[in-house]
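## tool: complex_structure
## caller: assistant
## args:
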Amino acid sequence: MAKAQVISLINMKGGVGKTTCAVNLATYLARDHGKRVLLVDFDSQTNTSLSVMSETAWEKWADKHGTMADVLEVHGKKKRGEPAKLADCIVHDVLPEVPGLDLIPSHLALTFIDLDLAARPGRERIFSRKIEKVLGDYDVILCDCPPNLMTATQNALYASDAYLIPMQPDYLSTLGLNLLQDRLGYLTRELEFKIRCLGVVFTRVRGWLRYHAETMERLRSAKEFKRLYFFETVIPENIKLAEAPMEAKPIELHDSTATGAEAFRALTKELVVRLK
Ligand SMILES: Nc1ncnc2c1ncn2[C@@H]1O[C@H](COP(=O)(O)OP(=O)(O)OP(=O)(O)O)[C@@H](O)[C@H]1O
Ligand SMILES: [Mg+2]
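## result:
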């Protein structure tokens, strides 16, 4: 059976829309394109998890089954004894309305991953080793990463075939893009793995701001980024996208007529073509 394509969503900048992209792309890949999708929450903030699960459901799941903290062996010695196996941490069909969308939730304990695993050899390869067993069960695995390139993100990247960069079109983010590419180059050399860049997605775009339009235009035509793909579809700033997580729902289930929903449907189509 064909193996899943593993994709990490990364940017060292916080609040740029990584999680919003991960949740909504995962939803439309499953719902509109019939893909079997696994969404993996690598961030101790648990934002992805709580965008598709209620807090109560998450708490029960974390207590009874397990989370990425177990997968990455961060609290392996807690009261339960043995850390849970990766397959046991998967919440199947996490949203009844979106069959085919599974989730491995995160846990606050991941905050300490860098300290806890500091002395552990091969600490950036734990996820890659464990995900191997379920690669045949999915078409796409989307890893939502925290805003840094530390141990959790390294685990996601090491297991990934490709990465996607959600980015806001402003000046400081432009500087971050160079830095991100440099740091990724360094990581891939040092850890000896290959990964392809799927491209940059402009997020939280305020259509009425000339500054945003100019920044996007400048980046798209910049010589230094000529090898980077910039997705044609951009994600607009849309309050519905920020409201949806309050109901633990992706935008499609919150308000399918919102401009944010329309944009994510189009972005998913463009992504599917890029993945072929
Ligand atoms: N296009 C958008 N329109 C309006 N609000 C948005 C949009 N994208 C994201 N937001 C909101 O902005 C905040 C940050 O977005 P999100 O959590 O997706 O970013 P992130 O890059 O994952 O952040 P972090 O780096 O903290 O993980 C959230 O409250 C989210 O709901
Ligand atoms: Mg996030």
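## assistant note: The domain at 5-275 is CATH 3.40.50.300 (Rossmann fold). Residues 14-20, 43, 45, 47, 146-147, 203-204, 235, 237-239, 241-242, 245, 260 surround adenosine-5'-triphosphate (ligand 1) (CB under 6 Å). Handing back to user.
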